[in-house]
């Protein structure tokens, strides 16, 4: 019995199976592959690649493990919790366990300082934030429709929002001259470009806190965004999966706070507002695949709940998390301690890099920071950025993510994740990049080095907030992941 050649696969399989729309060929994922083929280990492979491209929160697992040990009844796989095994194992309602939805609503409120309440009946679960985003897009748009997305943005959105839904993403270019802040002018310009191209814009997707910037939206910016979506009658999807990672002032303001304050007025249409949340970042549970859609639109909530049957959270996971997230003493302790540890790790990394003249965007949230290596580029082009990135990944052995994979309009920026490793690995990573920069500077001529240092003094965020405006070509209307050059 023979096998079909690969040349005939395209005729045998669906378009979605053969069109490459998943985006695996991005430099973002190429860095992961480099790590997977040569992972760092302090004794087994000390010269391997250190993973700094994965936004995981591993800094507080001692607190979680302590809670699990002290609450054995929360698991149906312990002697203390086995009595709930059958009821949990046979539960099939895609609304989810009532106590799970109540626990999630409680945790979401605690993360936001109890300044707002969430209705458990509006909690719709999905398979992680990935599933939540796709589910919302299916509810809000048809194939060919588009969402505006400010750049730089998480590369996975090209997969999560586009691959199976058929929608388009229209970039809204943001620039370092104003710290990559979203402006009304940029939103209107992107909306006009889409309209001129006969593309129907159905919504605006905002990540707050930002991935990859690690910044948060101010209230005035949020009100401008609400005015924009209300004026144009399009949806607003707020991705708030990093809400509990804010580690210093100013504090995070959820869109839910503004909705609650403005409810009943004519200033906003709450039917247009939807929140995506998960426990992957704030709690550090990406493997549990807990995503949440919280919509203020009754029809969207109803439709999303029906769709959730394609990506439910296991009842065993729901049962455990219902107990954990309802324990206010644990939740309060975890949020406070996580913030302290994230702040220290962020400071250790950014100050360590600043000592060798490497700056970063000023930030106060997230599991990463936005590193500025523009002065190390041979020329200000995406090709030069990818060339530098390949050196960092394959020679320095650090998997940082290049800005071009985040659709950044200015070459030379890189996302660096800092919460997915222990202190010893962090010190190894710092030594490697500091050594690399020192060698690069030593190779430069005196005149160029002096100019480089002078520019860095202007740019370093820990010394001064102003940044240098650079020419930034606009991104194309459609936004497939930028592929790494070989």
Structure write-up:
The chain has 486 residues and is α/β, with parallel strands linked by helices. It folds into 2 domains: 18-61 and 332-459, Aspartate Aminotransferase, domain 1, CATH 3.90.1150.10; 72-331, Type I PLP-dependent aspartate aminotransferase-like (Major domain) (Aspartate Aminotransferase, domain 2, 3-Layer(aba) Sandwich). The protein is 41% helix and 12% strand. It is built from 17 helices and 13 strands. The chain has helices spanning 9-12, 15-18, 27-37, 61-70, 85-89, 98-111, 128-140, 157-162, 184-196, 219-232, 255-262, 298-307, 315-325, 328-354, 382-394, 423-443, 446-459, and strands at 50-51, 123-127, 146-150, 168-172, 201-207, 235-239, 273-278, 290-295, 359-360, 368-372, 398-399, 401-402, 413-417. Strands 2-8-7-6-5-3-4 form a 7-stranded mixed beta sheet. α6 crosses α14 (328-354). The longest helix has 27 residues, at 328-354. The protein is globular, with a radius of gyration of 23 Å.
What layout of secondary structure does this protein have?
Layout: H1 9-12, H2 15-18, H3 27-37, E1 50-51, H4 61-70, H5 85-89, H6 98-111, E2 123-127, H7 128-140, E3 146-150, H8 157-162, E4 168-172, H9 184-196, E5 201-207, H10 219-232, E6 235-239, H11 255-262, E7 273-278, E8 290-295, H12 298-307, H13 315-325, H14 328-354, E9 359-360, E10 368-372, H15 382-394, E11 398-399, E12 401-402, E13 413-417, H16 423-443, H17 446-459
Parallel strand pairs: 1-11, 3-4, 3-5, 5-6, 6-7
Antiparallel strand pairs: 2-8, 7-8, 9-10, 10-13, 12-13
Helix pairs in contact: 6-13, 6-14, 7-12
Keywords: Ethylene biosynthesis, Lyase, Pyridoxal phosphate, S-adenosyl-L-methionine
Domain Aminotransferase class I/classII large: 50-433
EC number: 4.4.1.14
């Amino acid at each position: 019995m023979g096998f079909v050649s690969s040349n005939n696969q395209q005729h045998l399989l669906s378009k979605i199976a053969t069109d490459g729309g998943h985006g695996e060929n991005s430099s973002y994922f190429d860095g992961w592959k480099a790590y997977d083929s040569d992972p760092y280990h302090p004794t087994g492979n000390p010269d391997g690649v250190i993973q700094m491209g994965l936004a995981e929160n591993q800094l507080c697992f001692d607190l979680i493990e302590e809670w699990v040990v002290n609450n054995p009844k929360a698991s149906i796989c312990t002697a203390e919790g086995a009595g709930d095994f059958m009821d949990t194992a046979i539960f099939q309602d895609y609304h989810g366990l009532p106590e799970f939805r109540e626990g999630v609503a409680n945790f979401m409120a605690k993360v936001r300082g109890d300044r707002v309440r969430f209705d458990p009946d509006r909690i719709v679960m999905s398979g992680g934030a990935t599933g939540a985003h796709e589910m919302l897009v299916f509810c809000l748009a048809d194939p060919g429709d588009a969402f505006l997305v400010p750049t730089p943005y998480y590369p996975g959105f090209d997969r999560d929002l586009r691959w199976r839904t058929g929608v388009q993403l229209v970039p809204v270019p943001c620039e370092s001259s104003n710290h990559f802040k979203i402006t009304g002018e940029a939103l209107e310009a992107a909306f006009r470009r889409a309209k001129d191209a006969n593309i129907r814009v159905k919504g605006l997707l905002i990540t707050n806190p930002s991935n990859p910037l690690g910044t948060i939206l101010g209230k005035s910016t949020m009100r401008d965004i609400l005015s924009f979506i209300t004026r144009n009658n399009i949806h607003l999807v707020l991705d708030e999966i990093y809400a509990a990672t804010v580690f210093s002032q100013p504090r995070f303001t959820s869109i839910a706070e503004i909705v609650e304050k403005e409810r009943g007025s004519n200033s906003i249409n709450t039917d247009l507002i939807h929140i995506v949340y998960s426990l992957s970042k704030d709690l550090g549970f990406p493997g549990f695949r807990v995503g949440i859609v919280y919509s203020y639109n009754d029809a969207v909530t109803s439709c999303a709940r029906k769709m959730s049957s394609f990506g439910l959270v296991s009842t065993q996971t729901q049962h455990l998390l219902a107990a954990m997230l309802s324990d206010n003493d644990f939740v309060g302790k975890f949020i406070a301690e996580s913030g302290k540890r994230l702040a220290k790790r962020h400071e250790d990394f950014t100050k360590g890099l600043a000592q060798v003249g490497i700056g970063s965007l000023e930030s106060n949230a997230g599991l990463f920071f936005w590193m500025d290596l523009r002065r190390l580029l041979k020329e200000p082009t995406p090709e030069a950025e990818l060339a530098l990135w390949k050196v960092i990944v394959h020679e320095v052995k650090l998997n940082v993510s290049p800005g071009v994979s985040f659709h950044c309009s200015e070459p030379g920026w890189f996302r660096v994740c800092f919460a997915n490793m222990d202190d010893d690995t962090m010190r190894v990573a710092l030594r490697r990049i500091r050594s690399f920069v020192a060698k690069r500077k030593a190779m430069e001529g005196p005149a160029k080095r002096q100019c480089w240092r002078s520019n860095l003094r202007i740019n370093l965020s820990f010394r001064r907030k102003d940044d240098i405006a650079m020419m930034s070509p606009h991104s194309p209307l459609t936004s497939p992941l930028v592929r790494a050059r070989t």
